[in-house]
Design brief:
The protein is an alpha/beta fold and 106 residues long. The radius of gyration is 13 Å and the shape is globular. Mean pLDDT is 75; it is low at 75-85 and 88-106. The chain has 2 helices and 5 strands, in the order E-H-E-E-E-H-E. It has helices at residues 18-28, 80-89, and strands at 8-11, 34-38, 49-52, 60-65, 95-97. Strands 3-4-2-1-5 form a 5-stranded mixed sheet, with no helix packed on it.
Length: 106
């Protein structure tokens, strides 16, 4: 689906499709929207924030806030305690998982 109408896109994939996820995000996501990747950073792009979940897996969430024309905005997410609150306020209808079709074929 087209990601332009979503406030947040959540990806829990592998490192392999992350460049394709990033390309789709910068092409389609609106300024201010958020790409969240569970466990895998986007190669070559620094996350605006990294949330340590505190589970037994040591899960980290990489947050990328989209800027003008889909570009990443740097340093736009506040202190860690406010990060979860901001995510919780996003409309549930605007959250989608990244489609498995973005996985590279083996």
């Amino acid at each position: 689906p087209d990601w332009s109408s979503y406030d947040l896109v959540y990806a829990f994939l592998s490192p392999v499709p992350m460049p394709a996820v990033w390309a789709k995000a910068i092409a389609e996501m609106r300024p201010g929207s958020l790409l969240v990747s569970n466990s895998f950073a986007v190669p070559g792009h620094e996350a605006d924030a990294v949330i340590e979940v505190g589970d037994r897996r040591g899960t980290r969430l990489f947050l990328y806030r989209m800027g003008p024309r889909g570009e990443q905005r740097s340093g736009c997410i506040g202190p860690a305690k406010r990060r979860f609150s901001a995510l919780a306020r996003l409309r549930a209808a605007s959250i989608i998982p990244v489609m498995q079709g973005l996985h590279a074929k083996d």
